[in-house]
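Re: beginner question about structure tokens

> Can someone show what the tokenized structure looks like for a real chain? I only ever see the sequence side.

Sure, here's an example I had lying around. Input first:
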Amino acid sequence: MLNSFKKDEDSGDAGVFYNIDKSVVLQEARAFNVTPINPRKCRLILTKIVYLLYQSETFATNEATEAFFSITKLFQSNDIALRQMVYLLIKELSKIAENTFIITSSLTKDMTAKTDVIYRANSIRALCKITDASMLQGIERFLKQAIVDKSPSVSSAALVSAHHIFGISKEVVKRWANEVQEAINSKGIITQYHALGLMYQIRQHDRMAVIKLIRNYSKGLLRSPYAYCMLIRYIAKVMEDDDADRSAMYELLENFLRHKNEMVIYEAARAICGLKDVSNKELFPAVAALQLMLSNHKSTLCFAAIRTLSKLAMTNPVAVSPCNLDMENLIVNSNRSIATFAITTLLKTGNEASVDRLMKQITGFMSEISDEFKIIVIDAVRSLCLKFPTKQQLMLNFLANALREEGGYEYKRGIVEAIFDIIYHIPESKEHALSHLCEFIEDCEFTKLAVRILHLLGSEGPKTSQPSKCIRYIYNRVILENATVRVAAVSALVKFAIHCGDLTERIKVLLTRCLDDVDDEVRDRASMALRLLDDSELSKRYLDNESTFSLASLERSLHHYVQSPSEHSKPFDIQSIPVISKEQEKAERARAKSAAIQDAGITGLVSSSGASSFPSSSGAQRAVQATAASGQPDPQTAYAEAMEKIPQLSHLGLLLKSSSVTELTESETEYLVACVRHVFPKHLVFEFQCRNTLNDILLENVHIQMNLEATEDEEAIALLQYELSIPIDRLPYDTPGSIYVVYRRPDNICPTASFSNVLKFIVKDCDPATGEPDEEGYEDEYPLDDVQLSIADYMIPNYVPEFRKAWEGLGKEAEAVETYSLTAVSSIQAAVSNVIQSLGMCACENTGTVKDKAATHGLLIAGTFVGGVPVLARCRMALDGASGVTLEIGVRSASAEVSQRVANAIS
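And the corresponding structure tokens:
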């Protein structure tokens, strides 16, 4: 439409919409009041207003109202094209203008007109935009009649309007169920589609009514393929929500695979492929249907089929492998999108024997596709390499060749990430991969990638059989690159000097040359490195230190320090920050990266760490998941951010320690409750994460009653003071919420105890169809498992790089030694895990892993007790046949009381 108003470009005149001004257009809108009406001129002005709205031009309320009422004058004209523009503007301006109900009579008149169907359909759609709940009763009769109108366009317009009105007044629309039922049985293809959608919306909270709807219309009563596609989606949703009718619902889906319409067949196949816990037997007919589509002459159908198979191959490559021959034929398809999905799917489903052939086909294929599709191929190659490690050299050669080709930053970053993952998971590929990366940084145009590669070369290069090969490439960066890369190169050279004694003197010469660099940081790093390399003790402390601060905890503590004026009187205490090993940091980053990749639908890399099966049940829980997906490794940060937003908890200060999630109910019960224990400087906070799994009840005033059951710290528990409880006001069906119970711990007491818990609430019955609760309710309660408050809740894991030196430094004055017989464990590895879990400490010097079939083991663990008390423990374990494991634990700290409490905490 817009092009029809363009002036002749050859004349040199600008288009009508070039540099258009809102105030000028509103002045032109006065033409709507002129008699007689000029339809062509008015259409042009209306088009300009629409253009401004679609360009996100802001209209003030008074401007929109004035324009709206000017437009209403155009109802005097019977020009069909002009009337259509009027309807469009009414719908757009009704969101901004005031008193729009004034036009109701004009729209109602058009809605009931018997002459022109176009008037009726468009007026119905416009009318629903200006209708509110108070006006609905006046037009209800007209809308009900329109739903069963013989004209498909009028009927569809009424049904679509009903969809919008449903959010305003559900009860009114539900009264139209008979008319909607009649519309489903009409002959209009689009009408059936809209009517079925509205009927589902009316009945969606009544499970039995939805199943009845599905069964009635799965028998071939519908003519619309769109309606069948929607019906298939409803079937898939029912199967996802409830496994009780799975076999019957699956049979309906399988029947749709034999439908005469290709779109319906595809939708059924896609639904089956997307089912949870679907077996290969159930997948077989769906995959067979998709396989037939791969040879279809319609590109859209072929693309849809190969995309669905590609997604299925991520989770079940075995089921897709029968389609490999058909997919190989698609590699040369003229549609490069289809070809890309074909090759990436083959990479996931192919066997080791076919890898060589596939890689040859990909090599010529890469130059013909965009960077976006190249990244998809690179991800597939990475997954294939991890699946078949023996082919790593072939894959690395392919990735190295891809690095030499032209491409943007994201494409090159994807290749470098793939090589990094291969190095991490296939150690034997390290030297070959590093040689390729060395060659790449010789001609790398991206500073970020060069710095990352140099960091990796510094970490892994000294461990290769010939580390001197990397040094030339690294030093070239000092000569040829920008300051940022030169700094990274100096740091990498220092690592070679530390770990490769025979190269130290040669590297010192290179570092001495860096002292003349024009950049301050390059000179400073080189100067510091030369000074430290001459002192072995300083070198080991500052250059060869395998520990690092937990960056998430450091960030959180610094933020709290800056935001708390009361803290500024004393310096920031870096000793309160947990220290972890670099291996732990790398594992955390890998876990977070794996979570983010899985959320994006990409698999084949690192499997994510085991997570609790308890469903996400609170703002803090959702924040933890979002934090993991975004690459933040510390869930404690998410808990802290969630509690800072609660006024009653925002004053508690810095969160010192959060426990893991402890489930207090079975996963099959009607109420799901889990507990997280949070330790603050002067408080304990118990967070109970709750979820109501019953769709016919609403819980109100949900709170927890905690009672002390048992304790060994009677004096400490006597000082523990209940402070407040934050209940959940309303807990609807399947909506998470958290209850907080706060205790004050004066004098920094750290009691251990067991608390019994009862969930108390008011139950109100609900209508499953509407979700509306009864006015009256009754009190009820639900018993929960006990919550254990242990020493581990007060212990922050802390990695110590030189354990023996730290152990001797603490001395024997505050040492405690205890001996235990661990009869409940059957192996030393189980005993190690038990001790680490019971004490909440961190294993040092790789003692957390036990050699196979070892009969004895020494475990070194470290932590910081709440209050900043460093704690070290040395455990000696011996397997005592059928009696379990004998354990001797020695604990040293700055406090004899803390040492004894930790030594007594083994369970």
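Each token stands for a local structural state, so reading them left to right follows the chain. The CA atoms of residues 299 and 335 lie 8 Å apart.
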